[in-house]
Amino acid sequence: MAWAVPSIRSAGAGKSGSPRPSARRQARWYRGGFGLRPQRAKAVLIAKEEYTAVESQEGFVQHIASKTEDFSQWYIDVVLRAELADYAPVRGCMVIRPHGYALWENMQSLLDARLKATGHKNAYFPLFIPESFLRKEAEHVEGFAPEVAWVTRAGNEELPEPLVVRPTSETVIGHMYAKWIKSWRDLPVLINQWANVVRWEKTTRLFLRTSEFLWQEGHTCHRTAEEAEEETLKILQVYRQFLTEDLAIPVVAGQKTEREKFAGAVRTYCVEALMTDGRALQAGTSHNLGQNFAKVFDITYLDEDNELKHVWQTSWGVSTRLIGGIIMVHGDERGLALPPKIAPVQVVIVPILTASSREVVLSAVGNIQERLSKVCRVEADCREEYSPGWKFNEWELKGVPIRLEIGPRDLKAGQVILVRRDTGEKTAAPMDGLETAVTNMLNAVQKGLYLKAKRFVEDNTRLVEDYDAFKEILETRRGFMDAPWCGDQACETAIKEETGATIRCIPMGRSPRPGKCIHCGKDTDTWVYFARAY
Ligand SMILES: [Zn+2]
Fold first, then answer.
1. Quick check: helix, strand or coil at residue 177?
2. What is the distance in A from the centroid of ligand 1 to the CA of 487?
3. pLDDT in tens, 341-384
4. First-residue to last-residue Cα distance in the chain
5. How many whole angstroms separate alpha carbon 149 and alpha carbon 163?
6. pLDDT digits over 483-501, tens only?
7. How far is the CA of 456 from the centre of ligand 1 (A)?
8. Which domains does the chain have, with CATH numbers?
9. How far is the CA of 484 from the centre of ligand 1 (A)?
């Protein structure tokens, strides 16, 4: 059932004699963003009823729960049945399957390019951290201690000092920075690492909250407080662009409250996304660490004025939980719907085979695959043990942005049928200029998914000034609630206890607006985004 395994016979491997196209060719469309310049597609829209093909055939074997009726079950069904991930034998851990991992690799490479373009370099630090390191920063240890996994023994011997399996790497990286940084000439240090981390979670959900997950963590050192703040905000912007442009997920950028900030940070900024069940998801965070870690790890530099000073630091990360976000923002009743930029397969070719035309159709499939592989990630599903209808459903479940159908009638007409995953729209596209038609359609799907998600956020962001209305919305429609807050942590905590909603962020770039705190009624000019969150 999985693709790119020998059981999928590629068209070219048949009797047509053309070479077997590579299973997952890195395409220009993907590397260069949208390689081809958008042109008017030479495609004609045809009405659904005119194209009857084989959809009525048997075999929808998906059995995923209804998204509207049981969102959590739907989510799990999609993760499992689209073969993104599976439960591991250790509770709270997950196995990321090839389809899920290919998705992660595409996300990784796009974000990695953005981080490198802003001057960051990758490195790798160890998985194990001495206990004493974690204890050095008081807030940090308090924040992470409850979910830390320990190594106390190696073979038969007790370790002289217990080791922590990294929940995050500020401490070990700080230790190394203290060694490497001597002078103002060594600054800034802009390092990122792609790694796994472990946070022992009590309740877990595939991708969204797992005891071990994959992420990138950036750790930088600067000469001044201003430079560190600038870096923190620059990364927030990188995340915002990555989310909106690559993952087609609209976000609200803002600052976390004291209560919600990272343990050990001076300030935490975040991008928050809204899932289609009305819950928020923290999609990325960027922390200004000030000199907190620099002081405990003694990271100093000799400045131009010959004075020894502590560096100013930042750290920031996004993780595999974003995959959960992609599923919940774009998925629908038919399963996953992937933005083309990150989809492991962007176009799947499904031939309609009949006994008399089998060879000529397969040969055309080989030819189309060869052509399209130059502009996108394309696969051909030429399995004959499954009906086309069955395959349509399977690829829809897996979220492939475009399905290309070709049968003997299309061949005679010199065309193929393109079907968009996001809208279900069918288009007959001539063989001539097919590369352009496909590229334009991939662009259109990417844009379409983003606009649909954006509309959802707009429709589900509500100005609320009354606490009863606030509670009522949380029980029914949920979404973001833009409400006045006095700035007092006691109110924030009480709201959380009474309603389950947290302050997702204090949105950036807004002018003050008078209001009365949603909880205590005190005058304030700060409005914040509340939501229940994952
Ligand atoms: Zn208040």
1. helix
2. 7
3. 999 999 999 999 999 999 999 999 999 999 999 999 999 999 99
4. 31
5. 9
6. 999 999 999 999 999 999 9
7. 29
8. 11-61+342-455 (3.40.50.800), 85-330 (3.30.930.10), 462-531 (3.30.110.30)
9. 8
